[in-house]
Write a structure and sequence with these properties.
There is one protein chain. This protein is α/β, with parallel strands linked by helices. The chain is 16% helix and 34% strand. It is built from four helices and 15 strands. The strands form two sheets. It has a ten-stranded mixed β-sheet. A five-stranded mixed β-sheet has the order 1-9-14-11-12, with no helix packed on it. The longest helix has 11 residues. The two termini are 30 Å apart.
Length: 225
């Protein structure tokens, strides 16, 4: 069983691919080996001082100046047709998996962007192709999201009183275990549509979460940076 430790800013160690999905980057960017931009996320990355290695998408939202910069600076530009079945962010996550990192961190759209894009990005983090990664997380503005795939254990370094929620967004979750929290769980089952995992609280400096089967989504609404 893999174990990954992260802090409340979403940082970790190991080979890391960062995916920039759009929206202003407001959180500290994790230490990374590879930066992949999803379409207009390229402009967001550049504004944050990052130089993406790969640009993926149908390129309908990147600025003309941004695209020109990418093409003139040797960026691997992977243009897809506008009529496609997957979002640019999902395509960028697939590209990140192909680079075989131990960690994938997405900086995605924020609450001010389209709700369907935000939900789509969260759902894409639960894709089976990401299941082998011990650390799959995202930042959406000030909100941190960690997706725990089966067989993995994640340890969060959270201040006492920090609120976090557990959701079974990708189907039923069985064998959910949580320690270091106000409401600990052991071998619990969570089903889609249930709110039983909403608003738990860290009661120690370390919260440990795991799931035996299913894909569990952990949301930390307010991240200190």
């Amino acid at each position: 069983m893999g174990t990954t430790t992260i802090d409340n800013a979403g940082t970790s160690t190991g080979t890391c691919a960062v995916v920039i999905g759009g929206g202003p980057i407001t959180s500290p960017v994790a230490d990374h080996d590879l930066v992949i931009a999803a379409d207009g996320g390229y402009d967001a990355a550049r504004a944050a001082g990052l130089d993406p290695h790969v640009l993926v998408g149908d390129l309908d939202s990147i600025s003309a100046a941004g695209l020109a910069w990418a093409q003139s600076h040797g960026v691997d530009v992977q243009r897809h047709a506008a009529d496609k079945d997957r979002t640019d962010t999902a395509l960028a996550l697939t590209e990140a998996v192909a680079s075989a990192p131990s960690e994938i961190v997405l900086y995605g759209p924020t609450a001010g962007d389209r709700l369907d894009h935000l939900l789509g990005a969260i759902i894409a983090l639960g894709s089976p192709e990401l299941a082998s990664k011990g650390y799959v997380s995202a930042h959406f503005g000030g909100t941190a999201v960690q997706v725990v795939h089966p067989g993995h254990t994640v340890e969060f370094a959270l201040a006492a009183g920090t609120v976090f929620s557990l959701l079974s967004l990708h189907g039923p979750c069985a064998g959910v275990a949580v320690s270091g929290a106000r409401w600990a769980l052991s071998e619990a089952d969570l089903v889609p549509g249930s709110t039983v995992g909403i608003s738990n609280e860290a009661d120690d400096t370390s919260v440990v979460v795991s799931v035996a089967t299913g894909v569990l989504t952990v949301i930390i609404p307010e991240v200190s940076t």
